[in-house]
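In this section we walk through a basic example: taking a raw amino acid sequence and producing a predicted 3D structure, encoded as discrete structure tokens. The instruction is simple. Fold the sequence below.
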Amino acid sequence: MHAPGEIGIAFAKDEKTQQVHHLQRYFGAEPGQPLGQSDAGFLRDFLSRETGAHGYNRGVRDAQAVLAARLDDVQDAPCPLEQPVEGGR
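The resulting token sequence is shown next.
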């Protein structure tokens, strides 16, 4: 749960642990840049707070674009439920 006014994405404990390990591995690959578990956790929390909402919003916009394209396809397709009537539609 986030504090009032705090923006971020909530992750499960195992997801947070995996993200921390990824950060540690990344920084460990950089010469002279080791990152301890606590520092990696603080960095993960910071990145989630500062960039999480941007990533989430991008995902929402991408999903809306996909749905809009699918709705256009549905609207343009003939409806198989329509029944023929005399004299036109």
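Looking at the output, two observations stand out. The two ends are 54 Å apart (CA to CA). The chain has two helices and no strands. In the next section we compare this with other chains.
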